[in-house]
Amino acid sequence: MTWFRFFCIFVAAFAAGCSKPTAEEYFARAQAQAQTAAAMADTLRSPEAAREAFQPALALFESVIREYPRHQLAEAALFEIANIRNSNLHMPQEAIDGYRLYCREYPGGKQTPLAMFLIGYLYNNELHNTDSAAAAYRRFLEKYPDSEMATSARFELNTLGRSPEESLPVPPPEPAAKRGKKNTLQAPA
Known about the structure:
By secondary structure, this protein is an all-alpha fold. It folds into two domains: about 20-90, no CATH class; about 90-160, Tetratricopeptide repeat domain (Serine Threonine Protein Phosphatase 5, Tetratricopeptide repeat), CATH 1.25.40.10. Helices cover about 70% and strands about 0% of the residues. It has helices at about 1-20, 25-40, 45-65, 70-90, 90-105, 110-125, 130-145, 150-160, 165, 175-180.
């Protein structure tokens, strides 16, 4: 009987040690890895080194999606992968692909408006593809005309292809009478 108990305890311990992590555990580990990689990123000298530093975080986020595709954290993981490729790895086309996938998989998702806006932003400001940027901003404005980002999308759409200097309004010149006067302080009498 003692041998059987030992065997059962051993099997239970082995099974517990071999169980796959939960979605929350994968996601928490992925966030920690991403924070560590981001802290190191300032010291890395090459894009390849940055990609290597973020690879563990990306793999863990992908594990959430693969192992728990219906879990709410799968949505967040997909968005985080696109964000890392955008903000940390400076891979605009891969980020656009990730944001598009997010929009397709989660059309009513919490981050869908931001993802749609960022697609236009990356096309315009990183890839300098004004045609694709215009199409992306138009799709965004059709779907989210009252979004807090709609004003920015309209501005971006109206200034496509212009330099920042050309895009900003020029203040009217000061009247000649004001330019010649100096602001002098008078001492109290």
